[in-house]
Amino acid sequence: MHALLVEDDDRMARALGTALARRGHTVRRAARAADALRHVREAEFVLLDLGLPDLDGLELLRRLRTVCDAPLIVVTARCEERDVVQGLRAGADDYVVKPFRMAELMARIDSVRRRSGGRTAAEPARYAGGPVRSGDVEVDPAGRTVTVAGVEVRLTRREFDVLAFLAARPGEVHSREEILDRIWGDAFLAASRSLDVHVAGIRAKTGRSGLVRTVRGFGYQLGSAAGCPDRGSGA
């Protein structure tokens, strides 16, 4: 498996590169955002530090996601809740704060890769079944597209995966643990905010707060048609 390691700290890059090589991965290191953008299409997964000298890491993450759908884990010293939420919303599959245990990071890499099925940007996950409508929102699992009132809305890969999973069985309520297991493949994330952040992203980007319905204390369900459109403060 070919990894792109985006890390400007030489000591950290050596440690991560050695750990990845011992697990059979080939590693290309990029110390600058420009190098990461140049080589990301070759990557089968990405480790991204946010503290880069030539571009803010979150901005780089957004740019990477326009050209690359490979599994991506942020590995950074930024530990504020705001940073974690922004990283996940920008398209990270996981977020690991330095300092970390190397064994845990390797396990998280395995989990993200397992869930993604080892696909690259040219091989996005495909879902069976035709388009599903909820109000004026249409989810097309095969084409991996979402439209609202006929206009396509761009979701991150994880956001789409969550929405497509709910849309596949729109009449069912899915527990948080089930969704995390199916989409992230990692029960460890059950205590994290990853799922909540991605659900919030779906609602915000579609402008339909009822598209994903929260079942308090349990999980989520695709919202009913009547609950989808936002009507503003007068609703």
UniProtKB/TrEMBL annotation:
In terms of CDD domains, this protein maps to: trans_reg_C
Q: Which PROSITE patterns match?
A: OMPR_PHOB, RESPONSE_REGULATORY
All residue ranges annotated as the OmpR/PhoB-type domain in the record: 129-224
Instruction: Give the coiled coil ranges.
Output: none
* Native organism taxonomy: Bacteria, Bacillati, Actinomycetota, Actinomycetes, Kitasatosporales
- The residue ranges of the Response regulatory domain are 2-113
What is the recorded name of this protein?
Response regulator transcription factor
Task: Give the sites modified to 4-aspartylphosphate.
Answer: 49
Keywords, comma-separated and alphabetical: DNA-binding, Phosphoprotein, Transcription, Transcription regulation
Instruction: Using the record, list the residue span of the signal peptide; answer none if the entry has no such feature.
Output: none
* DNA-binding region(s), residue ranges: 129-224
Top-rank taxon of the source lineage equals Bacteria
Asked if the record carries the keyword Nucleotide-binding, the reply is no
Question: What is the scientific name of the source organism?
Answer: Streptomyces katrae
